[in-house]
Amino acid sequence: MKEWKKNIRQVLPYVPGEQPKQTDVIKLNTNENPYPPSPKVQEMCRQIDNLRLYPDPAAARLVNAIADYKGLDSSQVFVGVGSDDVLALSFLTFFNSGKPILFPDITYSFYDVWADLFRIPYETKALDEEFRIRKEDYYGENGGVIFPNPNAPTGILMPLADIRDILDHNQDVIVIVDEAYIDFGGQTAQELLKEYENLLVVQTFSKSRSLAGLRIGYAMGSPELISALHNVKYSFNSYTMNQPSILLGAASVEDDDYFRETTAKIIATREWFKDEMRKLGFTFPDSKANFLFAAHESVPAKEIFEAARAENIYVRYFPKERIDNYLRITIGTDEEMRKFVGFLKRYLHK
Ligand code: PMP
């Protein structure tokens, strides 16, 4: 082997869901929002100007809009290029003790990738038989804790009292709650920020704000944590947030009516879809996210996944131990979900 090859960083990258080239598909595979972003975002598009200049490295307009909306000080908000960027920087910033960080065995499959990339040791904790996170698993000595709430891909929400309990048992490390799906009926851990300065709550514009294509995520935490994130960001790339994202993201936050209306629609569709899926012989954990994680009583998930794909309906299938009989189905519009249910009825002869 050539000597230089030995020094190439070996990583097993995260595999994102498929983005099909053709447009005539029902796309229920990557938890995007089926509704367009707020019309205020469209309006703001016309005001994008001065792209010859560097953007504000602090993205102050967006940070202030988020801080105002959340009732926080801007020193408590950090923005990044999707929550993936915010989470990756958080791993780099906060998980440096050399002790293993903890996260569930079934969870967002980027966590172990970042841990490997940054050479952070980690231990995974098995979900219980009903796919719930066992809070007691996070009591021991560790280098930090991270989990999504609701968890992905299960959709199960952890009650705030359990998050508080995990924090009480983890006063010496940073605890990150990844709230990518919190706006679809969950209770945010934001109120715990007042009591726990080692808590970081991460949210995204990709799901509930219909802006996956813009790439905006943010962290909320004590000024000390936020300032540590800034230091690492400015040691890597000052201009992570481009000017259109800063302006359009702020416009989205300023239209709360639209946000409430579209998230409520998705919740209503999800609850209807749960009833339909039960009638078709599916079981699933009770999801509080914009997707359902469902297994059929007799037909293997892989077969349904492939048959749906052949009809241009894309859902997500993970060929991984414990979950390889489940499909993760994003909640689309009522019409999309009716078509998916129609396909299932035909396919399952129901
Ligand atoms: N956290 C979880 C649990 C997710 O499922 C996702 C979506 N892939 C993300 C974070 C990242 O989303 P984004 O980078 O689009 O904000």
Report what the structure shows.
The chain has 350 residues and is of the alpha/beta class. The chain folds into two domains: 17-36 and 257-348, Aspartate Aminotransferase, domain 1 (Alpha-Beta Complex), CATH 3.90.1150; 48-254, Type I PLP-dependent aspartate aminotransferase-like (Major domain) (Aspartate Aminotransferase, domain 2, 3-Layer(aba) Sandwich). Helix content is 34%, strand content 15%. It is built from ten helices and twelve strands. It has helices at 39-45, 60-70, 82-94, 111-117, 160-168, 223-234, 243-253, 256-279, 301-310, 334-347; strands spanning 26-28, 77-80, 101-104, 122-125, 145-148, 175-178, 199-204, 217-221, 282-283, 291-296, 313-317, 327-330. Helix 4 (111-117) links the parallel strand 3 (101-104) and strand 4 (122-125). Helix 2 (60-70) packs parallel to helix 7, helix 3 packs across helix 6 and helix 8 packs parallel to helix 10 (334-347). The radius of gyration is 21 Å and the shape is globular. It starts with 25 loop residues before the first strand and ends with a helix. The model has no long low-confidence stretch (mean pLDDT 97). The structure holds 4'-deoxy-4'-aminopyridoxal-5'-phosphate.
